[in-house]
Amino acid sequence: xxxxxxxxxxxxxxxxxxxxxxxxxxxxxxxxxxxxxxxxxxxxxxxxxxxxxxxxxxxxxxxxxxxxxxxxxxxxxxxxxxxxxxxxxxxxxxxxxxxxxxxxxxxxxxxxxxxxxxxxxxxxxxxxxxxxxxxxxxxxxxxxxxxxxxxxxxxxxxxxxxxxxxxxxxxxxxxxxxxxxxxxxxxxxxxxxxxxxxxxxxxxxxxxxxxxxxxxxxxxx
Length: 221
Ligand SMILES: [Zn+2]
Known about the structure:
Radius of gyration: 20 Å
Largest sheet: 4 strands, mixed
CATH architecture of the largest domain: 2-Layer Sandwich
Shape: elongated
Mean pLDDT: 79
Helix content: 40-55%
Order of helices and strands: EHHHEEEHEHHEHEE
CATH class of the largest domain: Alpha Beta
Bound molecules: zinc ion
Structural class: alpha+beta
Low-confidence stretches: 1-14, 21-25, 105-111
Number of domains: 2
């Protein structure tokens, strides 16, 4: 399987959760091997992340072992954005491929994922950021269905129930981010709110417990 790695801790949890679900209808050995393969591939690709620095193959070996498997092969060149591993549990083998999306490692406050955003939202956010003098940044803009799925799975794990997770992350298919109508801001949120008023931007914060979440006015009507 191929997995996309963003913020590694979150995505590792998300991937493990997805594997956990799949294990229900797969044989135990196959599931275990796949889990080990996924973990090993993620561990290897993590070493290629900007903050990594170890040997991808050593990381893959270790994570395979911790999951009860042994590493059979690792196509894991240092610094590469994709790693491919094969592991074995007894005579059951499994393969996994993990890919880093370098876009997701951009420093906050720089260019954001403007593609996919509604043009009016995008223009408003750019104006707000420009007027903030570096005090406000974009932490999340447009998200694909897949990215939303990963966030949702991660929230489900963290908060324990769909009901609780729902307070923090919209289920896949229901996020305004997927429609390109929402943006999450970081930094000085009070300043951001003030700038919305001062500049007369068509943005608002419809979710009381998410002060970082700004939407285009009228998005939900
Ligand atoms: Zn949001």
